[in-house]
Specification:
Mean pLDDT is about 85; it is low at about 1-20. The protein has helices at about 10-15, 75, 190, and strands spanning about 35-40, 50-60, 65-70, 90-95, 105-110, 115, 130-140, 145-160, 160-170, 205, 210-215. Helices cover about 5% and strands about 35% of the residues. It starts with 10 loop residues before the first helix and ends in a 13-residue tail after the last strand. The chain is mainly beta. The chain has a domain at about 25-175. Strand 2 and strand 3 (about 65-70) form a beta hairpin. The strands form two sheets. Strands 1, 2, 3, 4, 5, 6, 7, 8 and 9 form a nine-stranded antiparallel β-sheet that branches. Strands 10-11 form a two-stranded antiparallel ribbon. The chain has three helices and eleven strands, in the order αβββαββββββαββ. The chain is globular and about 45 Å long. The longest helix has 6 residues, at about 10-15.
Amino acid sequence: MRRHLLGSMTAAALVASCDTRQPSLDCPIQGLEWVVTYKPVGTNTCPGLPGEPLGIQRYPQPSGEPLLALKPRTLNAMDPTDERDPSHPPYALGALPTQADADGFCTVSSLSVAEKHVPKDPKQLLPADAVYHWSNVRLVVLPEVPGTQLIADLEYTADGCTARYEAWAMMPGNIPCASRDSPQEPDDNLCQQSASIPRSFAVTCDPSLLRCVPAQRPPSLRSAPAP
């Protein structure tokens, strides 16, 4: 709020002199290990990519301009067979704003391409060529979500096949939800009861990842306070 002016003022004038709007928040990024779930956009002929763990980091620059870095698990898993081509970095970088907008988002419109090109995996567990083109990354910065959820657009190319997704991500990203009785089956109760996930978050157990992920398009929040 602005400081009250001294002197003779009416009560109405005093109230009018106060700015009741919430101040803009900065753009924090909480934690390093997130999880992302991919929602297909349009018609894709590629094999489905349900989601994956996602490394996220904020890098301060000498100029004072922070950078956002994204590195998905697929590219991280390809590291051991990579020849470290400096022209193809395995992480995406984009300029992070210093403050959130009026809606509580810190938007990174464009990022560098993250990609890896490695020898073919004989077990075919990983692609030989993987390219991630992120755009419109919107970090949620609200009192209930202080830099712990984001939404983004992704164009993903693997071995020549391209698919488009809307990405929903959150931190913490390492909360497992495989059923204790049937380890290959999801147990959504584990997400709802997890003490590591804020109670205000709306989450669900992804049946492919068997990890807790956002249940809704971020900001993914319960419609009513959790009991």
